[in-house]
Amino acid sequence: MSPRWEPDPDVRRGNHVVHNLHAHLVFVTRYRREIFDDAMLTRCEEIMRDVCESFGAELREFNGEGDHVHLLVHYPPKVAISKLVNSLKGVSSRYLRAEYTGRINRIGIGPVFWSPSYFAGSCAGAPLSIVKKYIENQKRPT
């Protein structure tokens, strides 16, 4: 008897697409001010998890330090990363500013919570060198 094939839970299926897209995102606070404590990071994760769900994405991992946060997001191909990032930063900024006004005003970052820049890196199941070698070894039709 052959072993039963188990589908990969990371591979999602749509009407006309099979995909497995992950992005590593890093957002830095304005002026790299040390704003976050544990409670604020927990609330930021909750907000960002909700935003991801509204895009049909999943926040797989979240962590941070006083001046930045890291996210690992599993997202569908219809989602533009720039739109997701704008929403994540915009919504979290509004909620965190409203809920932690005193703390944010004491630190003094002005009217903007996040730095305008961010890091976005694609994450694949295999290292790029393996994918490159796989593509190089494909036979061209003759």
Provide a quick synopsis of the model.
The chain is α+β, with helices and mostly antiparallel strands and 142 residues long. Helices cover 37% and strands 27% of the residues. It contains four helices and six strands, in the order βββαββααβα.
CATH fold description:
Alpha-Beta Plaits
Beta-strand percentage range: 25-35%
Poorly predicted ranges? none
Determine Rg (CA atoms, Å).
19 Å
Largest sheet: 4 strands, antiparallel
Number of strands: 6
The appropriate CATH architecture is 2-Layer Sandwich
Run of helices and strands: EEEHEEHHEH
* Name of the CATH homologous superfamily: Transposase IS200-like
Question: What's the pLDDT, averaged over the residues?
Answer: 88
CATH class wording: Alpha Beta
The number of distinct structural domains comes to: 1
How many H/I helical runs?
Answer: 4
Quickly give the structural class. Answer: alpha+beta
Biggest sheet, spatial arrangement of strands: 4-5-3-6
- Morphology call: elongated
Span of the ends, CA to CA: 39 Å
What is the helix fraction of residues, given as a range?
A: 25-40%
Structural commentary:
The protein has 142 residues and is an alpha+beta fold. It has a single domain, classed as Transposase IS200-like (Alpha-Beta Plaits, 2-Layer Sandwich), CATH 3.30.70. The chain is built from 4 helices and 6 strands. Strand 1 and strand 2 form a beta hairpin. It is elongated, with a radius of gyration of 19 Å.
List keywords for this structure.
142 residues; four-stranded antiparallel beta sheet; 4 helices; two-stranded antiparallel ribbon; single chain; elongated; Transposase_17_sf; Alpha-Beta Plaits; alpha+beta
